[in-house]
Amino acid sequence: MKNLTNNKMQLLSNLTFSCLLTLGVAAGAVADESSKPIKVGLSVPMSGAAALWGQGADWMCKKASEEIRDSGGVVVDGTTYNYECITYDNKYNAAEGAKVARALLQREGVEFIGGSLGTAPVRALQSLSERMGVLIFTTAWGDQIKGPDYPLTFTQMNTPHEILEPLISYVSEAHPEAESVAILNPNDATGQQTEAVSTKAWGKVGLEVVSSDFYERGTTEYQPIALRLARHDPDVIDLGATPPAEAGAIFKELDVIGWDGVKLVEVGTGADGLTAIGGDSVEGVYMGAAVAFNGPSVTDHQKRVNEEAREDLGESLNTVQIGFYDSLFALKAAMEKSQSIEPKKVAEALPSVTFQSFYGNTARFGGEETYGSPQQMMLPVIVTRIEQGELVELGRINPTE
Known about the structure:
The protein is an alpha/beta fold. It is about 40% helix and about 20% strand. The chain has two domains: about 5-160 and about 300-380, 3-Layer(aba) Sandwich (Rossmann fold); about 160-290, Response regulator (Rossmann fold), CATH 3.40.50. Strand 15 and strand 16 (about 390-395) form a beta hairpin. Residues about 1-30 have low confidence and may be disordered.
């Protein structure tokens, strides 16, 4: 083993971990003997293109459970509890999401989902969780997954409704010369949701939307897409919910044909995937779902945890993964306020609690005006940009609600 390179060791570790999770083996932080365990389920992609998001989500759930345990656990009615993270691979699709939902809720007996990833698998999970009285946290963006009809569902990260207006306003103010924008999104529920919100946001700041198009995820030919985007010679190209690797490929093709304007990936989660594919063509790209760990507002705790995560995952943490940390601290606050571990009572307490977010701020739940009930975790929108190949934080916009 000593003769293996670090990369090979990491690959072996990831493969072993993925195999265990595919078989449904829990790999979570387990409560110590002096406390009682509370199972916290995760439905996330642990394989395929989105595997890093799922692996980071699992990692952050374990980190939060470890920190909560070390600080004295969750104390309810004189009993100390600790969280045990149980992660299953939903492969980012509805069919596997349904299997995972049954495994977590029926076989494992989980009553709290600490996080779920992917709109399609989340909907499959939610169809069971609401009927069975299970509280779930999710990163999914659809308007239809929360509101008064889904009292046990809470969102653990910003969605387009929270990100896009402040991000687009920031970019517009930074580039007052810009008059037009071309928009591109994946042709699925996530992309369609993002497009609907961003089109309104660009119109609100006075830019003309000269085209708004969709493409199929997994596309391998990006030159035709780049040509379509550049056809109207827009001042801004907004790639919306396009994943980092695909966004990098598109910007690379735009660079080849000579387009040189303002670049934006609204839900870009980091620089690594973009720069790995796009190289110099992604210089200057703005993002709204990434976290830079090198700015003056970054705490020692954030830096330390991110460095640990980089060693294990190979990339920095992002907002998708951070939500799986914050959800456990929100659960702890609601359980201790309600003095209950019954999901419905905990759900009733969540809108009235505050908790310390990984971002360093005191967080709470809101969004009643948008969704009909306060089920959205209110978090800062962090505007970042790639500068000389590095992710730089330009601004942090705190929620006003």
